[in-house]
Design goal:
The complex is a heterodimer of chains A (78) and B (501). Chain A is mainly α. Chain A has one domain: ACP-like (Non-ribosomal Peptide Synthetase Peptidyl Carrier Protein, Chain A). Chain A has five helices and no strands. Chain A is globular, with a radius of gyration of 11 Å. The termini of chain A are close together. Chain B folds into two domains: 381 residues, ANL, N-terminal domain (Rossmann fold), CATH 3.40.50.12780; 87 residues, GMP Synthetase, Chain A, domain 3. Helix content of chain B is 28%, strand content 26%. Chain B contains 13 helices and 24 strands. In chain B, the strands form six sheets. A nine-stranded mixed sheet of chain B has the order 2-1-10-9-11-12-13-14-15. In chain B, strand 12, helix 10 and strand 13 form a beta-alpha-beta unit. The longest helix of chain B is centred in the first third of the chain and has 17 residues. The termini of chain B are far apart. In chain B, 51% of the residues are buried. The chains are: A mainly alpha (78), B alpha/beta (501). Chain A: It holds the Pfam family PP-binding. Chain A: This is Acyl carrier protein. Chain A: InterPro entries: ACP-like_sf, PP-bd_ACP. Chain B: One of its GO terms (biological process) is secondary metabolite biosynthetic process.
């Protein structure tokens, strides 16, 4: 399944993240260093699970740090 | 110092006295660009005690402290205790309503607040003496004379401090403590479990106004003659890592949410943190966080569980005896029992309600006799509301026996979140219950919408923003479920436990 950065950013907007913050997110840097905090992180993970009908295990959730990590994860799981 | 008697003396004298005799010029605290010696700390505590005396504050009066972590916090806390008053430190991030409630409930007659907390300034009234301060101890209260460190020995039941924690009704509840309670925690957990030494530098991401942080950053370093690093700001991963790199603490204390955020913020395969070990409490540490932290840093996290009522941690893993996924073993001096719904002990391996007894237990709740009678049992044990099971002396968290949620080390009453959700124009009714995300407990909202409202992503986004602008971050639901009905009892009460995921 091909997933784009734009789709993941749209998902971030759906969970109410700030539009300006989402626009600035670089895909290869950890989200947690780009203003995605301890509320946004789990909310995004949950939204991703719902949209792509997959489950993120506890240990996987600690390895998904960048948008590119999430894209690779979704594509692997598909 | 760990062999000193913990019961007989004023808490401030017990923490400061031995250090003044042994090493008055040793650094007690580092905060921003300031280093504070034990002598400076004691002098400032004495000056604050003098100020309270001149303000007609008497023994037993409550002194409200709304301060970020700084040497001023520590000096004011100790000064209030030295004077015989009851220090009441509270969070710097409460709502105006909560501040007013705590002021009224505690009956505080003196308020010391940081000028960085504007809501605190609004509490001023003719019945309250108030004083604003900065975060730097140097020069603070220098117009007041210092004095020799002295205070009469307190009676065994005299109170030294009181903390507020979130109650099941949504209102904060006061948990008062005696002079000995922090000293017992410092001896039983700080010294006997963590083995804190005079050459340690302690750094706690959890703030001093929490029981966990009060032990980590005030009682433990002073009791052991060590040094503590304080950080007044929000504990974000980059700031914490920069401070660790700059100061090289030997022990780091935090909560699982912060450990997870540090892991997620680290792009490199390894993270070099030269320290003895790390400590976690406040919420259950997921095995995945323990394992990933160990892989990333090579360091163990000692997980434990404590409560404000017991002062600090009473079940903990110990160096060299760690079981990932377990809260650990009973801390020396604490008795643990697991009971069924009728109060009978359960068999090993069977979940039961956790009850704890120890010498650091709060004598009662403040102004809540019914809650006290229900929670604090006649034989000295206290109901924690947690469900655990025990195997081979190790305790494993299995959930809550009530509807309270513990998120990022802080309690949430679902009632608080539900009341706000019901004020959204599209919400007819709702319930908030816990869900597991990334191994950690988080709030989830289950919403019944008003007729003609459509459950779609735009509405969810609108509700999320509505909540985010009105609630502290840790209380925000991370999941929203739109439902046609909520599970209820025959009398119509919502059964939140059926919604836990």
């Amino acid at each position: 399944m091909a997933v784009t950065i734009a789709e993941l950013k749209e998902l971030m907007l759906q969970i109410g993240m700030d539009k300006g913050l989402v626009a600035e997110i670089a895909p290869d840097s950890p989200l947690a260093t780009q203003g995605v905090d301890s509320v946004d992180c789990p909310a995004f993970a949950v939204a991703l699970e719902g949209k792509y009908n997959l489950t993120i295990s506890d240990s996987d959730s600690l390895k998904l740090k960048t948008l590119n990590d999430f894209i690779a994860f979704v594509e692997r799981a598909a | 110092m760990p062999d000193q008697k913990v019961a007989a003396s004023n808490l401030a004298i017990a923490l400061l006295g031995p250090n003044l005799a042994k090493h008055p010029d040793k650094t007690a605290y580092i905060c921003n660009a300031e280093s504070v010696s034990y002598q400076q700390l004691a002098d400032s505590a004495c000056r604050f005690a003098t100020l309270l005396q001149q303000s007609a504050i008497t023994a037993g009066d409550r002194v409200l402290l709304i301060l970020p972590d700084s040497p001023v916090f520590v000096a004011a806390f100790l000064g209030a205790v030295l004077h015989g008053a009851v220090a009441v430190p509270v969070s710097t991030a409460l709502t105006a309503d909560d501040y007013r409630y705590i002021l009224q409930d505690s009956g505080a007659r003196f308020l010391l607040y940081s000028s960085a907390v504007p809501l605190a300034a609004e509490l001023a009234s003719p019945a309250l003496t108030d004083l604003a301060c900065a975060e730097t101890l140097t020069g603070w209260l220098e117009q007041y004379p210092t004095a020799e460190l002295a205070a009469p020995a307190p009676a065994v039941d005299d109170l030294a401090f009181m903390l507020y924690t979130s109650g099941s009704t949504g209102k904060p509840k006061g948990v008062p403590h005696r002079h000995r309670d922090l000293l017992v925690a410092a001896e039983q957990y700080g010294s006997k479990v963590l083995g804190i030494r005079p050459d340690d530098l302690l750094f706690s991401a959890s703030k001093l106004f929490f029981a966990y942080g009060l032990g980590n950053s005030l009682a433990f370093p002073l009791y052991s003659g060590a040094t503590a690093l304080l950080y007044p700001g929000k504990p974000l991963p980059e700031e914490l890592l920069a401070l660790i790199k700059q100061h090289h603490p030997t022990l780091f204390f935090s909560v699982p949410t912060v450990y997870a955020q540090i892991i997620l913020s680290t792009a490199t395969p390894q993270l070099d943190l030269p320290m003895r070990f790390c400590v976690s409490a406040g919420e259950g540490l997921p095995a995945a966080v323990f394992d990933e932290w160990q892989r990333l840093t090579g360091l163990d996290i000692l997980d434990g569980i404590g409560t404000t009522e017991l002062t600090h941690v009473f079940i903990s893993n110990q160096p060299g005896r760690i079981r990932s996924g377990s809260a650990g073993q009973a801390v020396p001096g604490y008795q643990i029992r697991l009971v069924d719904d009728e109060g009978n002990p359960v068999q090993t391996g069977t979940p039961g309600h956790l009850q704890v007894q120890g010498d650091s237990t709060a004598p009662r709740y403040w102004n809540l006799p019914e809650k006290t009678a229900d929670t604090m049992l006649a034989d000295g044990f206290i109901k924690t509301g947690d469900v655990f099971l025990e195997q081979e002396g190790y305790y494993y968290h299995r959930g809550r026996s009530d509807d309270m949620l513990k998120v990022g080390g802080q309690w949430i009453s679902p009632i608080q979140v539900e009341e706000l959700l019901r004020t959204h124009p599209s919400v007819a009714d709702c319930a908030v219950a816990s869900c597991q995300v990334m191994g950690l407990m988080r709030p989830a909202a289950h919403l019944m919408l008003k007729p003609d409202c459509i459950a779609d992503p735009a509405l969810e986004r609108d509700i999320r923003r509505f909540m985010a602008s009105r609630l502290q971050d840790y209380m925000l639901p991370v999941r929203y479920f739109f439902v046609d009905d909520l599970p209820r009892t025959a009398t119509g009460k919502v059964q939140r436990f059926k919604l836990k995921r």
